[in-house]
Specification:
The structure is a single chain. The protein is built from six helices and six strands, in the order βαβααββαβαβα. By secondary structure, the protein is α/β, with parallel strands linked by helices. α1 crosses α6 and α4 runs antiparallel to α6. The model has no long low-confidence stretch (mean pLDDT 96).
Length: 206
């Protein structure tokens, strides 16, 4: 598998099962100021030792290092995917870059999808306490809602041009769940329900 490095030299990591294949991909820290995904994934893997899932603990390590939503190029990765609704917007914290897939982090995730062809993708975000979904993912969203107590919604409530959900969920026809965590809860408080979500995903044979 080709290696990808961020602008600041951090290697982007995929953790995959020993068999090398997986049907469900879990992605953490698309936004650097939402660190919960990394901690939950790391703690889960430390607990179970082996998983059937594929994990990207941190898609945006440069943003995580400086606690910013955007990456080192000040691009919001969740607006940088080559969906048909991508736009070159104002250069604020939601800026989608100069062009679609301009960022190495975006290209890394696209490469993972093309190489491993996951049948379902879960991304971990904060803080809206909702199970958002794109594409044919309602059945999974409902199950995750039961485990987390968060409501299900197909609409996050504001425009997201160039989002991962639109790119993968709607245009690539891969069911995508965007799980918005409660940022008011500690990792210890989040672990019981989110670990149940991971274990539910482990049971899926897609």
């Amino acid at each position: 598998m080709k290696k990808f490095y961020t602008k600041n030299g951090r290697e982007l990591e995929l953790i995959k099962p020993a068999a090398g294949k997986f049907n469900v991909l879990v992605v953490g820290v698309i936004h650097g100021d939402e660190p919960q995904g990394k901690e939950l994934i790391t703690n889960y893997l430390n607990k179970v030792k082996e998983s059937r899932l594929g994990f990207i603990p941190v898609l945006n390590p440069d943003g995580l290092a400086k606690n910013t939503r955007t990456n080192a190029n000040n691009v919001d990765l969740n607006r940088n995917f080559p969906a048909t609704n991508w736009k070159n917007t104002n250069k604020n914290e939601y800026w989608g870059g100069e062009k679609p897939a301009s960022e190495v982090e975006t290209r890394f995730l696209i490469n993972i999808i093309e190489e491993f062809q996951p049948k379902l993708i879960l991304t971990l975000h904060a803080p809206y306490k909702v199970v958002n979904y794109d594409g044919n993912a309602l059945v999974y969203a409902k199950e995750i809602s039961k485990l987390t107590g968060y409501p299900v919604s197909s609409d996050i409530g504001y425009p997201t041009p160039g989002s991962f959900g639109t790119y993968a969920g709607i245009e690539k026809n891969i069911p995508v769940i965007t799980l918005e965590l409660d940022e008011g809860c500690s990792i210890t408080e989040l672990e019981p329900s989110i670990f149940k979500v991971f274990k539910y995903l482990e049971t899926l044979y897609l």
